[in-house]
Every structure is written in structure tokens, then in C-alpha cells.
């Protein structure tokens, strides 16, 4: 039996965690593709076009809407799949002691959906933690969360979006979902709607640390 080909996925977030001080919604978005270089080339062209070569980064929250719209259109033209996990933080009655649990849970759920669809996958997460111990804890948390999925090959890397340009495309996707839920503006998500294979809303009242 032939082994499944390796898929690539790039995961970023939008919004801030926390029932009291965070945004109403927190979004994790995953952008998956067979050939990662396609996304890298797309971002590099945009960096050149919009004069961001010196900074090396396009950030949807800082760009003009027209710039992000064009980026999303280019993404939608590719053979990509998108998974989004959205946490409705308005629903939280009791927060976890460590509110990073919200991030870990949402990220793990997004990866679970990906691995169900693509059992051989290389996942790049935007680098959230500067401390190695926190990065290790996150990966352990994810692997426990997906351990019941059998016959999988899951490689996980936590990387800088400056170095891994594809993460900047994932940033645009996460921002699009944030606009839909936080702002009630679906224009951006509508562009990539045909590529979405999973849109998972978490409305959990009582949280606890795992």
C-alpha cells in the first residue's frame, strides 16, 4: 500500500485570549497545501509589490484592506484547504487558571481536523513562545490531543513568520475569520469560502486546565 504524500500546513492566530481582557472571539486558522513553495512565492511577490521587503513581513492587521483582499484572492486561486477554530470567549463563565489553555485547545483542535484529513503532514506554527519550555509544553499538549488518530506522521515546527513566509499567508486567513466573527464583516471570508473544509466554533462555559 502506498504511503500518503506529505502535506504542509501553516497555522496562525487572530485576536487575544482571555474571557475578561481578551477579544470577544479568538481565532486559529490553518492553511494547508501540497507544495509550500507556492505560498512562499505568493508572499514574496506581495512583499515586493507593497514595499515590505525591508521588514520582511506582511501583517493583515497593519495593512490596507485592499492589500489583504488581494492576498486572499491569490490564496483562493491555489489548491489549498483551510481549517478555522473559533473560540467564543463571550460564552466563558469560568476561565482556565492559565488562559493559554484557550490557545492550546484551539490549536490542538485545528491540528486534529487537519490530521484527520491529511495523516502525513508537516505543520508550521507561528512562534508564540520565546521560552523553550513553553514551546515543548505546547507540542506535548498537541500530541496528547491527537494520539487517538492512528497511522499518522505529524511533524510540528514552531517558527518565525519572518523566516517562514507561508505563515504570513496564514495570518491573512486568520484575520479574515476574525473580521467575520469579531466585526461581523464576512467580505474577507467570502473570498476563501470555497477552500474551507472545517469551521469549528467553541462555545464552552466552564474551562479547566488539562
Describe this structure in words.
This protein has a six-stranded mixed beta sheet, sandwiched between helices. The protein starts with 6 loop residues before the first strand and ends in an 8-residue tail after the last strand. The protein is globular, with a radius of gyration of 17 Å. It has one domain (7-202): 2-Layer Sandwich (Nucleotidyltransferase, domain 5). It has helices at 36-49, 65-76, 100-117, 132-145, 166-182, 187-192, and strands spanning 7-14, 25-33, 80-88, 120-126, 153-159, 196-202. The chain is an alpha/beta fold.
Helix content: 25-40%
Low-confidence stretches: none
> C-alpha Rg, in Å?
17 Å
State the shape.
globular
Strand order of the largest sheet: 5-4-1-2-3-6
Class in CATH?
Answer: Alpha Beta
- CATH architecture designation: 2-Layer Sandwich
Mean pLDDT: 94
Features:
Nucleotidyltransferase, domain 5, 210 residues, single chain, alpha/beta, globular
Question: Would you spell out the secondary-structure blueprint of this structure?
Answer:
Blueprint: E1 7-14, E2 25-33, H1 36-49, H2 65-76, E3 80-88, H3 100-117, E4 120-126, H4 132-145, E5 153-159, H5 166-182, H6 187-192, E6 196-202
Parallel strand pairs: 1-4, 3-6, 4-5
Antiparallel strand pairs: 1-2, 2-3
Helix pairs in contact: 3-4
